[in-house]
């Protein structure tokens, strides 16, 4: 196999699998939002409803776009910011093991921002 093929497969895996896993966190929040239940934390002081809305964008909407590779670098930014807030503010006082998941997702999204989508994406079609 050519190294460029392996690189593009690796970029697809890096983009798709963490985004699929992120959807398991974002989908319940999306359901909460569309049901009109705006009870949610307010980690950055903008209110519960705006915080929920922004979290749904970062954990549900953007991961869907990442899976298909549309505007990949741009849509990874809200997801990265959401994970940064989760790790540093929401779980800031928690033990490392509690914030580790958010930090791992943050790492994936930063890598996607830096590396781009690869060949197997809408961006490259």
Topology:
Blueprint: H1 3-34, H2 48-68, H3 72-90, H4 96-115
Summarize the structure in words.
- The protein is an all-alpha fold.
- It has one domain.
- The protein has four helices and no strands.
- Helix 1 crosses helix 4 and helix 3 packs antiparallel against helix 4.
Short description:
By secondary structure, the chain is mainly alpha-helical. The protein is built from four helices and no strands.
Query: What do the pLDDT scores average to?
Result: 96
Q: Provide the gyration radius in Å.
A: 15 Å
Name the structural class: mainly alpha
Q: Strand-and-helix sequence, N→C?
A: HHHH
Q: Main β-sheet, in a few words?
A: none
Percent of residues in helices: over 70%
Q: How much of the sequence is in beta strands?
A: under 5%
Number of domains: 1
Shape: globular
Number of strands: 0
In the predicted model, the low-confidence regions spanning at least 5 consecutive residues are: none
Helical stretch count? Answer: 4
The end-to-end distance, rounded to whole angstroms, is 22 Å
What characteristics describe this protein?
single chain; 125 residues; mainly alpha
